[in-house]
Specification:
The protein is α+β, with helices and mostly antiparallel strands. It is 47% helix and 18% strand. It has three helices and three strands. The chain has helices at 34-44, 49-60, 64-80, and strands spanning 7-12, 15-20, 30-32. The protein has a three-stranded antiparallel sheet with strand order 1-2-3. Helix 2 (49-60) crosses helix 3. The termini are close together.
């Protein structure tokens, strides 16, 4: 799984925003917090969902089972916005 070409994450204050580059017709604004930024950056590297869950759980020092649903939901939202291939 990977973020589609043409989309970048830019830091704005404490959040990040998704911007379209290279002539992509993209309207709207997507903002993500630190956790969303972590997931986005892993997706840019081509990480799969379970790999992201494990890495985030280690980063946040929490049980992977406690965050799996939220991580998968966020990834599904990115897919729904056609940002992931």
């Amino acid at each position: 799984m990977k973020i589609k070409d043409g989309y970048r994450l830019r830091k704005v204050g404490n959040n990040s925003i998704v911007v379209a580059v290279g002539g992509i017709n993209f309207t709207g604004l997507i903002t993500v917090n630190e956790t969303g930024t972590f997931i986005w950056k892993m997706l840019e590297k081509g990480a799969e969902a379970e790999e992201i869950v494990t890495a985030l759980a280690q980063e946040c020092e929490v049980n992977a089972d406690d965050i799996r649903g939220e991580v998968l939901e966020f990834i599904e939202k990115l897919k729904g916005a056609d940002l992931v291939e």
